[in-house]
Amino acid sequence: MRLLTFCFRNLFRRKIRTALCIIGVALATTFVIAVGSTTMRYTTVIKEMNVLFNGQVMVVSNDTIVIQAIPIGRYTLQESLAEDIKENITEVEKAVPVLFITPIGLGEIIQPVPVNFSMGIPVENWHLIIGPTPLKGGVGHFPTNESSNEVVIGASLADQYNWAVGKEITVNGHRLNVTGVLDTKLALLNRCIVMPLRLAQKIYYSKSKRANIISVKPVQGCSQEELANAIEQQVEYANALTEDERYDMIQPVLAQVEIWNLGIQTVIFIMSLILVMTVTIMSVSERRRDFATLDAMGAPLSYVFRVVLLETSLIGVLGGVLGIAFGSLAALVLASLYTNIPLAQFFPSIFEIVPPLYMLEIFASVVAVCCVGGIIPAINATRMRIAEVLRAEY
Amino acid sequence: MKVKTVDLTRTFSVGPSKITAVNKVNFEVDKATFTAIVGPSGSGKSTLLNLLGLNDYPTYGKIFIDNTDTSLLSGRERRKIRLFHMGFVFQTFNLLPTLNALENAELPMSLARKSAREQREKAVRLLKTVGLGDRLYHRPKELSIGEMQRVAIARALANDPEVIIADEPTGELDSKTAKEIIGLLFDINRNRKTTVIVATHDEKMVEVTDTIYTIRDGKLRLEH
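^ inputs. structure came back:
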């Protein structure tokens, strides 16, 4: 008789208790997966932001808070500052004014990650900011300097609002034409409307020549730090942030998030372990006669040990599978709630929100925790004194 | 298998007092014999059988199995003896409730790592021998008390033990079923040359045994 079948039957001898234990483990796993993947997703998105200004110094107003590469707040700079920097500082290869519009600002309710963005970039410098991002299916074109109403949009926005190439959309009361859909894996660009700087200034700052970021590329051989110092000496009202500085600003927050996440996971797993251990101790104590009989028949201690550990592992496997399924669903629901993007739109990208490796990691952890939860009951089962147990049963 | 005890003693501590359940027992059971240990409840029968079956450790004295001093054996070696050389029949059958009759009979063979095919074939044969050919896939709760004891006997025979230790095997049975079980044990003893040691107070059992011992207050006495 196969050990697995034996353990399965033993488990479901007490159906309600086993089912409740499995549900308990499944709920714990659901919570870990939902919270873990949501925070992981946000930290990934935040980390991704730096990709946009890779290798460049970001100049922002002194009063602006920067999360990675995203300026928070309504403080702007004159667009001409880019020219000034280029002319007055020799270490500068290129200075590009960018208008980055986020739907969040100080005094408003700040979501963990903003949902939609707009970005205005001088057309000739697009590649410098968004990199070599192609258009989806090669359909459409990037806006030209002459165009006053052309934009390209992120794929996620296109999916959500059913926007396609040629579609007319309205942003801040301005009618714009979609000329392409960006083909990118960056979450930020997927939720972005990218347009020429002039058009962004027209839409958001009434044609005022403002920018909120000046992206400055150092000449070869010049470090970002040297360049940032030079800019800050030259422009008193601006902050020049190197990639490292931007990273250092957000790193403590991300580290805290990860520590909290780990803390929550640990507490949840310890609770699961206690649950499994308690239930199994009860189960073993109810089956004292069975274990004593096995012992009397000469069953090796390892056999009894395996029976108990396999039973708790099965609880882990069943609870883990259910928990991962529910947890993934919960992560999608959370993503939908936080972003106001319809739930259905997240289904195709479920493995991006809850990566398979993370699922596997949590599954292995749950099974391991349940297995560990079986150790003390298994020791109890092997330490029974046969004669006493058998006599007590009469 | 020959079983011999020398001054076998087992004392239990109950609070401040000590109870001697088996008191300096010296006896010998020869190969292929049918031995009964008779005594009232609480006289020490089960304790003695647990000691003989290596399920318990004596407080004093020794047990020799085929001239091997079992006090020198490790826990693992004692298990091996129980698994390969002994079969146990309990008063309350002690069948595993989640296994059907066939699986219960297969269990000792599974523990002895015999092949699945061998386990299945032998378990079927044994269950047919004890008259349960039509009850193979029934779980213990679906069997009558007599049928459960037959499964227990089939299980005890699974690894072809040299000795069967049965603790009041007819204690829970009605007289007709008890007679059948006694007949079954007698056949096993005579046909398979298996040593049978039975604790009982069933008079019918006493009628078929080769040797009878009585036990009272832990003291064993040879009757005939």
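Chain B has one domain: 29-54+71-222. The interface with chain A takes residues 46-47, 50, 53, 55-56, 75-76, 79-84, 86, 88, 90-92, 94, 96-99, 103, 106-108, 110-111, 119, 155 of chain B (CB under 8 Å).
thumbs up if we can close this ticket
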